[in-house]
Amino acid sequence: MFASDSLMPYIACSEEDINGRSGGRANLFRSYVKDSHPVTFTAVDKYETYYFKNWTDRWGNFITDTKELTVDKSKDQYYTANYERRVPILNVPDTITIHEYNENNEYIVHVGNIGSGDIEMDWYVSDSLSNCVYLNDITEGIDDGYFTFSFNSVPNELDSLEIFAPETDMMSKKIYIAIDDDVKQAIADKIESIEADNDHLRIYPNPIHDYVRIEGEGLLSVCIYSIIGKEMYRSGIGGSHSATINVAGLPNGVYIISVKTRDGMISKKLLKTN
Predict the structure, then answer these.
(1) CA gap 88, 12 in Å, rounded
(2) Any bridge partners for residue 208, and if so which?
(3) Is 0.90 surpassed by the pTM of this model?
(4) What is the 3-state secondary structure (H, E, C) of the chain?
(5) Which of 140, 174, 234, 245 gets the most CB atoms within 10 Å of its CB?
(6) Which pLDDT belongs to residue 38?
(7) Within a 13 Å sphere around the CA of 196, how many CA atoms are in the beta-carbon half?
């Protein structure tokens, strides 16, 4: 009795041979007195990531796909217990290119398990290191599913998310996120359309690093939005003439600051850098 691919699964034997040996691992040579009483060898269902497939004879001919192989003792015989490896395989896109400007700012990524057999695949997703891209509600699942992401600002370089699937051979995979030039242009057009001139309002410095200062008459409130419309900051000012806002925690990128005054709403583009 042999196991395929040099594996070492335990093969049980229904009775001892003339040397007092019964079951054992991998290759078994058992000697019996010739008679009509059969002996049964039983292969294990699973060995590590390998699953029992079938028994074949010396020449590779199929015998049975049940774990139990019963043979007589009338002659010398040779059999192999065949095992096949079954592991989940993570299926996600290598690169996601944003081809359309999405006002809802949400993009769906499908996750699949295309491995053989019925082995479940647990997976979870980690946020990108740049903080431009962020995950929404769903961040983990089993086998087929999806997760969604959005972005706060347009990254200057290719961004990425990482999805982990510990049961797979790959363990993890990066999904690169690129933004189509047409989308970048649409965002740029949105920036250019913002009204930013007002002689009675100062917003500085620009680019911003750790803070932004607002000075003017009758300041009521201030909001900061990502370039695609996600609110990043909101605060009341209460009619004062100046305010200082800490922006150190914002990721680098382009933002829109909107200041409400007694005379109306003023918006301006801000560039955040380190």
Answers:
(1) 29
(2) 272
(3) no
(4) CEEHHHCCCEEEECCCCCCCCCCEECCCCCCCCCCCCCEEEEECCEECCEEEEEEEECCCCEEECCCEEEECCCCCCCEEEEEEECCCCEECCCEEEECCCCCCCCEEEEEEECCCCCCCCEEEEECCCCCCEEECCCCEEECCEEEEEEECCCCCCCEEEEEEECCCCCEEEEEEEEECHHHHHHHHHHHHCCCCCCCCEEEECCCECCEEEEEECCEEEEEEEECCCCEEEEEECCCCCEEEEECCCCCCEEEEEEEEECCEEEEEEEEECC
(5) 245
(6) 92
(7) 14
Lowest-confidence region among 10-14, 104-108, 130-134: 130-134
Backbone angles phi, psi at 224, to 5 degrees: -120, 130
- Please give the single-letter amino acid code of residue 208: I
Amino acid (one-letter) located at 55: W
